[in-house]
Amino acid sequence: MNKKISIASLLVALGIVYGDIGTSPLYVMKSMLGVNNGYVSKDLILGGVSLVIWTLTLQTTIKYVMLTLEADNKGEGGIFSLYTLVRKNAKWLIGPAVIGGATLLADGMITPPVTVTSAIEGLTLVFPIETRSIIIIVISILTVLFLLQRFGTDIIGKVFGPMMVIWFSMLLILGFTQILQYTEIVRAINPYYGIKLLVTSPQSVYILGAVFLCTTGAEALYSDLGHCGKRNIHYTWIFVKISLVINYLGQGAWLMLREGSIIKDNPFFLIMPSWFVIPGTIIATIAAIIASQALITGSFTLVSEAIKLNLFPKLQVRYPNDDKGKIYIPAVNYLLYIGCVLLVLKFQKSENMEAAYGLAITITMIMTTILLSQYLRFNKQKKVMSILIFVIFMVIESAFLYANLFKFVNGGYVTIVIAGALIFLMYIWIYGTVIRKRFNQYVNIFSYEKHFKSLKEDKELPLYATNLVYLTESQNYKEVERKIAFSLFNKQPKRAKYYWFINVRVTDEPYTKEYSVKTIVPNEAFSIQFNLGFRIDQKINVFLYQVIQELACSGEVKFTPKEYMISNNNKCVVGDFKFVLLEEILSNESELSRWDSFITSVKLLIKKLTVSPAKWFGIDTSNVEVEKVPIIVGKKEALTLTRIS
Questions:
Q1: How many CB atoms lie within 10 A of CB 630?
Q2: What is the pLDDT of residues 50-65, one digit of tens each?
Q3: For the chain, which residues make up each domain, given as ranges?
Q4: CB neighbour class for 641 (10 Å; exposed up to 12, middle 13-18, buried from 19)
Q5: Entry pTM
Q6: What residue spans of 309-349 are helical by DSSP H?
Q7: Left if phi > 0, otherwise alpha if psi is -120 to 50, otherwise beta: which for 382?
Q8: Mean pLDDT over the full length of the chain
Q9: Fold observed for domain 7-427
Q10: Of 468, 432, 440, 472, which is closest to residue 576 (Cα–Cα)?
């Protein structure tokens, strides 16, 4: 799915895709200087800028823009989209997907604080602002940003593109004017200086950790593929990369003219003319907000995909605007906001955040490399290329990981702890499903044909509903869970005119909208399979009404409406609905290991705390009956009582 190229589409790509990677000049050179305690040396600047240029070339341009963007799933990108393309090849690939998704979310939590704080700190060159005041300003900006999420991003989004054009143009002009002052800086394009720095500097590991910050937004670039299309990203990246490289060269040129000095302030703001510092800081702050916004919406998309793939607990998803691609997940919004505020309060200064930033995202990139190599090997049948890509980028990213591991004690542990918590949450969800499926008992629903007939003829029972609906996990239309049969025929037998057993299958393609119908008992019991893409909102209430209406109109369901029933737009009337949802509780009769029992109990607790199945499947809550059903896993030895007189 390649979107058409136009001025508008290129502006959208600039506004959405490059927020994170585009704001990296705010802190990369400053972080690199910090490694050397602010001392400006020729080898550090030439080598550091060279490493930045070649990192942007190898990691961002070659790996992500040229290779990974080609691994799109019907136009959609991101680590979970990539996982859906390769998961048929091996079950173990769920591991890299879960780890990559969790670390991307965790490191994403520190991106808004580090970018906004770096931008606001530019004001210290003009005004004597204390750290406490900067913290208050940053938290205020983040508060407004997160509060705006519930209203959607349409209004904000319209100014993103033009503002990023101004931002990148500013980077280009500021960098170019400094290069003119010291043209020899262009020697940094030669990778020799970068390699020399890594070989000779005793601080090469820490320098590499600072250099990595220039490419942290590459993963978000892939995640936002669905919003823009790969061709728009290909074209805009040319402008973006030139702007970034020129700005890094410009900062390097300014520093080279001050070789031997100790620079404690941010070179990004120092290369600005004094009259431009305030406007430049305002533009930088807006760019930082755009970077934060892109990351927040990316987090919503990532979690939404994980939920649809049954890798994450079900959370309430809202669509504030008409665009189905722009979603809002309140729980994720609150958690991100709380995390961002706590990180600002903990680290306080951008230099402290930089010391912790990048560790988790390195792990994400390694996981993407693993999945990408599998995609090239199995989906594209390019075995030699897959091995080559795997080896090259594993070497590069392992070096970055080793360098970033030194950030662990300086605060990197925060993002690793957050990522670990998210991984464990997904593990509970996935393994809890495995445990339940291991002992799930299914029955052949066709063997109950006589039961349906007897139930229908039992006039002592009141009519429970015209259309009675059960949701089943069985993708085999001939089978349903035993607990459904028990609920239907034993636990308050339910007489209805029509019975519907529904299964929702999430497809590997993002926007699939298909269904199939199988008849169990003619004109009485039916099985429906919905095939919905992982980007589709599961509004089962609406879909089911449409399906039954089509069946009634075609005569497959012979429904005779009463005279008093109202028909909208002359469409076929299908009567009332009643959904029976079975809420699981762990039975005392279950025989599980302590670990499996713990996982199952925690998963059931999470289910209670998160969105209800009725809300998740878009079912009108007035038509829902919730029944508690015990999960009996395994069988304990039966106890026999002896009767005494």
A1: 13
A2: 999 999 999 999 998 8
A3: 7-427, 440-631
A4: exposed
A5: 0.82
A6: 330-347
A7: beta
A8: 84
A9: Amino acid/polyamine transporter I (1.20.1740)
A10: 468
